[in-house]
Amino acid sequence: MIRVAVVDDHEMVRKGIISYLITEPEIEIVGEANSGNGAVSLVLEKRPEVVLMDLLMENGTGIDATKEILKEYPECKIIIITSFYDDEQVFPAIEAGAFSYILKTATAEEVVRAIQKAVAGETVIEPKVANRMMKRFRPQERKPHDELTEREMEVLMCIGEGMTNQQISEELFIGIKTVKTHVSNILSKLDVTDRTQAAVYANRNGLVQNQ
Amino acid sequence: MIRVAVVDDHEMVRKGIISYLITEPEIEIVGEANSGNGAVSLVLEKRPEVVLMDLLMENGTGIDATKEILKEYPECKIIIITSFYDDEQVFPAIEAGAFSYILKTATAEEVVRAIQKAVAGETVIEPKVANRMMKRFRPQERKPHDELTEREMEVLMCIGEGMTNQQISEELFIGIKTVKTHVSNILSKLDVTDRTQAAVYANRNGLVQNQ
DNA sequence: CGACATCTCCGCCTGTAGACGGAGATGAAA
DNA sequence: TTTCATCTCCGTCTACAGGCGGAGATGTCG
């Protein structure tokens, strides 16, 4: 008997998943949760072997819930089951300790198989997701800003906000001359000619917090 | 008897929705589709009163499917049922002729009610979605760059590319002095202090072709 | 220890940016 | 026609940007 918990903020998705599992005699649904916080208390109480977990939820993400659960209950097999579109979260999910990663496009058979394999200690990764993971381990394509030092990166982010050297010196508590030195180094490393181009670079490469 | 079709590329979501409806005696599921194209042929064949339609699908979006269906079968009540996150598509969906717009966070009761109301000719719009719609009809919030002249907009796009005044004058075949005049006017109208901030503005507001 | 990277700051110099005020040419609108 | 917006250009002036070369204070690594 495999005890399973289902976590998703959409009730209809939970019902859909459960309809997949209800026909399987060796699987027992021990509970549902509609939030990350709810998932933690549910799983720590019911101690299911497997958790099917969505990532995007309103109260506490699946990532945080996964970390919390594994801290108290490390044997738990957490299967991330999410949409294709939030692929930035694939890697954080793996780091958080997720055991498998499947998509909501999965069929009933695929979900059941993922659960059975999880109990057997086998990880299941969707091919599309696996491809994205592989890229992480392939030799990274080098971005010009990789060679910026930490301080230079801070200055670049300020430039990306449109700040002047004076404002940056006040923001970072350093002298204007120092800022100028950093800026010169940044322009050189990014292979641009002035701060405006550096600002454009920073914004296009997502180096600025504020969108 | 209300005849209903369910369209979503995720089987588990379809099963979840169907589990909501299967208990309702006056609702009959006449078919499922997992793509926009499939939805069109299904609906035109089975002629359900109501269609529950997801927007994001692999083969043909829900928007296109909605248009296609209504072209041949305009009495059909199409209820969009999608995630909260693809809100840019709310307006296109309404324009395409969708009858109601609910979210995947909806409970079984809400889905059933939306179907019943659709048959009765009443539209259901989720409050969160309705708020976004209202903004469309409220006096448009004026973006600072709306008051830029055509020429000033061209200059701003050049600034957004990181070009100097010299380069802009060559690009637009005008004198540097003219460029400076435009730049001064742009800075004033955008309420920024220098070209770097203008470049940041242009990039953040999607005024530049190249991403 | 020495080599190296990083962060900090200095002076000097040139060029660009940008503000300010003025002005002619054009075309559309009242 | 007169008015207005737009695009074009001019001169002047100040401040900031950025290059160049130098240098002291750290901390790390072999």
From TrEMBL, chains A, B:
UniProt xrefs under Pfam families: GerE, Response_reg
Higher taxonomy: Bacteria, Bacillati, Bacillota, Bacilli, Bacillales
Domain Response regulatory, residue spans: 3-119
Entries under SUPFAM superfamilies matching the protein: C-terminal effector domain of the bipartite response regulators (SSF46894), CheY-like (SSF52172)
SMART domains: HTH_LUXR (SM00421), REC (SM00448)
Domain HTH luxR-type residues, every copy: 141-206
Any single GO BP term: regulation of DNA-templated transcription
The keyword DNA damage belongs to this UniProt entry's keyword annotation: no
Annotated Gene Ontology cellular component terms: cytoplasm
Stated name of the protein: Response regulator transcription factor
